[in-house]
Design brief:
Layout lengths: L7 H9 L4 H6 L9 E5 L2 H15 L4 E5 H6 L1 H4 L5 E6 L5 H13 L2 E6 L5 H5 L2 E4 L12 H17 L6 H16 L2 H5 L7 E4 L5 H15 L3 E4 L17 E5 L5 H12 L4 E6 L16 E4 L10 H18 L19
Parallel strand pairs: 1-2, 1-3, 3-4, 4-5, 6-7, 6-8, 8-9, 9-10
Length: 342
């Protein structure tokens, strides 16, 4: 695709983002002594949420909250917290800056994870993890989301005493993954859905939320995110054959996901499963629609695959926006940075 015209810059970012991951990982510093709270707003919060889920599974004392919780109820959000990692692409999102100020007043050690070490958030922090090459220069976070997530994952791995090279594994997987993950939407020939649903739990919950946000931001369509087993409790009732569902599966959830996918296929032909090859399942049931499966390489473990998994969700958001007559480069009613009055 020629890189000009409607949606061209967003498409370029989606296709080229893996090139920034190695540099981002190299900027990760030492995770402060815990308990550690990770925070951010919007996509930055979803990256923090994903990284905290990984850290918890590695035995680290970490959690995540949206920056708004720290701003509105600092005594509750910061209780027992020794350090704060505040994530903000721009380094000037109001809630992130205010959260850092509240944490300093609380006596916590503050780290800024950002693309802009020269801005307000970094000025409030004791340490800065900066990834300038991850900056998108666009409204929605794409390369910056995956790169800052890689940075946070590297910090978690380092704190847990794991070997280096996780970012290298992601970068090795990137070229082949890009070829299948970025182009699958337009190649599928599927019509634009009525709505979309993204299902993911554990280390995929933040990724599911990010996929929901990207499609909402770019296409202005209706998108939902749920933990997979929660989907049957109410939301299931409104699912129709005109809806698209993405299931972000993992080894730990595979048994339950297979049953859910089988049930989904009885309700809609538009089911996409994203996960490791070992969870691909058996033969398709006769008479039911086939599932589109995107399997990331076996060499990338479930804990670390989030930057890969979110790419087809970004690509779907781009495709849906283009099919809906929207411009992904200029989403309606949005600005790159949210600034609030004091």
């Amino acid at each position: 695709m020629a890189q000009h015209g409607r949606g061209a810059w967003t498409r370029t970012l989606i296709e080229q983002q893996g090139e920034a991951w190695g540099d981002a990982a190299s900027q990760a510093g030492s995770l402060p002594s815990g308990p550690v709270l990770l925070t951010g707003s919007g996509s930055s919060y979803y990256a923090a949420l994903t990284a905290a889920a990984i850290g918890q599974r590695l035995g680290l004392t970490v959690e995540a909250r949206p920056a708004a919780d720290i701003v509105t109820e600092p005594a509750v959000a910061l209780k027992g917290i020794k350090a704060l990692v505040a994530v903000s692409r721009s380094g000037r999102t109001t809630e992130a800056v205010w959260a850092a100020e509240a944490a300093v007043a609380h006596g916590a050690y503050v780290v800024a994870a950002t693309c802009h070490p020269e801005r307000e958030l970094a000025a409030r922090a004791h340490a800065v993890w900066a990834a300038p090459s991850a900056e998108d220069d666009t409204v929605v976070m794409l390369r910056s989301f995956t790169s800052l997530l890689v940075l946070l994952q590297a910090a978690m791995a380092r704190a847990a005493g794991l070997r280096a090279g996780l970012a290298s594994a992601l970068q090795r997987a990137w070229p082949a993954w890009r070829d299948q993950a970025v182009r699958w939407g337009e190649e599928s020939g599927a019509p634009a859905p009525r709505r979309a649903v993204v299902l993911g739990g554990g280390v995929r919950w933040g990724i599911a939320l990010e996929g929901m946000l990207k499609a909402t931001e770019m296409s202005n369509q209706v998108v939902h995110a749920y933990v997979p087993l929660e989907y049957r409790h109410g939301p299931w009732g409104s699912l129709t054959a005109d809806d698209a569902v993405f299931v972000l599966t993992q080894q730990v959830t595979a048994v339950h996901d297979r049953q859910l996918v089988a049930d989904l296929r009885r309700r809609t032909p538009h089911v996409v499963v994203i996960g490791p090859p070992s969870t691909a399942g058996g033969p398709e049931d006769a008479g039911l629609p086939r599932v589109r499966r995107l399997c990331y390489p076996a060499g990338v473990g479930d804990l670390w695959a989030g930057p890969l998994v979110v790419v087809p969700l970004q690509a779907f958001a781009w495709w849906w926006a283009m099919a809906s007559g929207q411009d992904p480069d200029a989403p309606q009613n949005l600005q790159p940075v949210v600034k609030l009055d004091a």
